[in-house]
Amino acid sequence: MAARREIVLARVFFSDSSESKVRPCVVLSNDHYHSDGFLLVAAITTNLDDYCIPISEKDANCLLDKNSSVRFDGVIKLPARQAIKGIGRVSPEFYSQLVDKIVSMLK
To answer: Does the predicted model carry a pTM greater than 0.70?
Structure first.
């Protein structure tokens, strides 16, 4: 099972269709939540906008596209079986920054 701060390759369905794409995602949720068979994730993308945080080599211990960023405006609930494999982890500092951005949208 994936752990908080882990970067996983996961099958993510687009919100406007039944099509899916395998993309890297940062696991946000904790082990207690995972015990129900689900993960909360934030998708990693190469489309930078106001609702993304750039992610670099210092933020993650795996190779990502040099123009990657993490979306914080669309937390995704996935069945854990859609997480194909772990490929790395984000730093505690990056994880905190990501959570702060999510929370700031809710205030």
So the answer is: yes
